[in-house]
């Protein structure tokens, strides 16, 4: 890719913001009322900011980006594969929830009641996800341009609008469902449902490291990545906290629908202002934003695991690229796995319950990956192949250790509360929930050991030769 066609700071900022900042996450956060302010600030300090800082440092000092390369250089190939597997497989679990939001929003143009019809929603999810996979097969330039357009038309404008509608609502003195006071902002730390909110908010902040796999597609990455990550972090925190408050202020907690709660909230506002005719327009814009936001989540983790495939962890079938440089067989396999995971919707008593289970399961897997990323950052700074020419976390070793420690504590808290089922969502029996949850965790992690065996056998037979020295030399250059 020539310098003229590489991604600049604005394009990269829109790519990152469009991938992470999402109106889809607002209803989940809004469920927890006024205490969501505390949890957003807590999650920003303990996760969003550490993730952005570590991603910026690693992306600007290691020439080949991504979690696989970072953990590989810190702890070896097998740990690198485990990390990228966690990043990839968590997305397989997360995709159905994301596409459920798209499908749920689309039902507002047809019949809102369809959002609770499991079979209709599964059919919508599969159709949408396979369509997005086909878009990604066109390459990073097409997907980045598509994401930038969608981020502006379907994310920034609707997010700004819901915040403006909230300001007008407050100015007119309309009734509020929650009130922000010193006593309500701080959660009841003995009530576990409050802490369960953290799992949803943490997941909504995840993904800062995804864009780093495109380090070779970015113009002057040592400067561009830190700027784009800083701008993205600020935009994401402000818009998501205010957007969640807009829903919490207007919609009663027991009426918030996790699947189509965002358009539900817009409908409340627009109906009050006699602007209901705008609902279909906003529905279309939200669909555009959601479609764009999913692009990076489909291609970036796949690109990360393609790095591991080139080192012999996967058969050569998954290394094949099309004329656009996309691992087409890997993306198609990914779509098949997502299609199978969608069937979990049939195992839960409600669409909301399925949505929560898949979201939490995805969060747990992702947090394990972030634990590995923060530990890798500590070990990598003094490695010989570290460029030391890009961004570094301020404060030298103390600054690095402090940032990584904050991130690790945030991950640990999230991992703990993730095993606790919520009481305000229909998940069926707690025992059934825990069995499905634990079985899901085990079933999604255990395949890693099978790939280890495959790697060892093919390497022993001389089928795979991993050019570590050449890669380290390339990094040093």
Outline the structure in words.
By secondary structure, the protein is mainly α. It has one domain: Amino acid/polyamine transporter I (Up-down Bundle). The chain is 69% helix and 0% strand. The protein contains 18 helices and no strands. The chain is globular. It starts with 8 loop residues before the first helix and ends with a helix.
For the record, what CATH class applies?
A: Mainly Alpha
Share of helix, binned: 55-70%
**Tally of extended strands?**
0
Strand-residue fraction? under 5%
The outline comes out as: globular
Task: Determine the mean pLDDT.
Answer: 78
Main β sheet profile: none
Helix and strand pattern = HHHHHHHHHHHHHHHHHH
Radius of gyration, taken over Cα atoms and rounded to an integer in Å: 22 Å
Q: What CATH architecture label applies?
A: Up-down Bundle
CATH superfamily: Amino acid/polyamine transporter I
What is the helix tally? 18
How many discrete domains?
A: 1
Distance between the termini: 19 Å
Protein structure class? mainly alpha
CATH topology: Amino acid/polyamine transporter I
Low-confidence stretches: 464-477
């Amino acid at each position: 890719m020539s310098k003229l066609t590489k991604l600049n700071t604005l394009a990269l900022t829109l790519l990152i913001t469009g991938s992470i900042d999402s109106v889809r996450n607002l209803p989940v956060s809004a469920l927890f009322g006024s205490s969501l302010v505390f949890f957003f600030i807590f999650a920003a300090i303990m996760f969003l900011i550490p993730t952005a800082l570590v991603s910026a440092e690693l992306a600007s000092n290691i020439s080949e980006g991504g979690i696989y390369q970072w953990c590989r250089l810190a702890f070896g190939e097998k740990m690198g594969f485990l990390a990228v597997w966690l990043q990839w497989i968590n997305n397989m679990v997360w995709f159905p929830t994301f596409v459920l939001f798209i499908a749920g929003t689309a039902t507002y143009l047809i019949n809102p009641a369809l959002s609770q019809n499991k079979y209709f929603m599964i059919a919508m999810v599969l159709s949408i996800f396979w369509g997005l996979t086909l878009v990604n097969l066109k390459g990073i330039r097409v997907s980045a341009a598509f994401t930038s357009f969608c981020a502006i038309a379907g994310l920034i404008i609707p997010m700004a609008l819901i915040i403006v509608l909230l300001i007008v609502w407050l100015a007119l003195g309309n009734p509020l469902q929650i009130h922000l006071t010193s006593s309500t902002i701080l959660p009841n730390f003995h009530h576990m449902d409050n802490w369960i909110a953290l799992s949803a908010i943490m997941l909504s902040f995840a993904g800062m490291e995804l864009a780093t796999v495109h380090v070779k597609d970015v113009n002057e990455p040592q400067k561009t990545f830190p700027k784009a990550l800083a701008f993205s972090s600020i935009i994401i925190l402000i818009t998501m906290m205010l957007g969640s408050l807009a829903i919490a202020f207007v919609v009663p907690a027991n009426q918030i629908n996790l699947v189509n709660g965002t358009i539900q909230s817009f409908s409340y506002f627009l109906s009050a202002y006699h602007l209901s005719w705008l609902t279909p327009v906003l529905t279309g814009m939200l669909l555009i934003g959601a479609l764009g936001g999913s692009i990076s989540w489909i291609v970036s983790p796949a690109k990360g695991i393609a790095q591991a495939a080139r080192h012999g962890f996967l058969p050569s079938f998954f290394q094949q690229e099309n004329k656009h440089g996309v691992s087409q067989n890997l993306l198609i396999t990914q779509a098949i796995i997502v299609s199978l995971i969608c069937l979990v919707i049939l195992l839960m008593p409600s669409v909301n319950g399925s949505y929560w289970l898949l979201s939490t399961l995805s969060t747990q897997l992702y947090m394990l990956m972030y634990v590995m990323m923060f530990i890798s950052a500590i070990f990598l700074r003094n490695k010989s192949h570290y460029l030391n020419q890009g961004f570094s976390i301020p404060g030298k070793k103390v600054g690095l250790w402090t940032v990584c420690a904050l991130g690790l504590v945030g991950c640990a808290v999230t991992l703990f509360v993730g095993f606790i089922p919520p009481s305000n969502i229909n998940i069926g029996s707690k025992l059934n929930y825990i069995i499905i949850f634990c079985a899901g965790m085990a079933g999604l992690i255990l395949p890693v050991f099978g790939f280890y065996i495959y790697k060892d056998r093919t390497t022993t037979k001389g089928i795979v030769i991993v050019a570590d020295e050449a890669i380290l030399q390339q990094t040093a250059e």
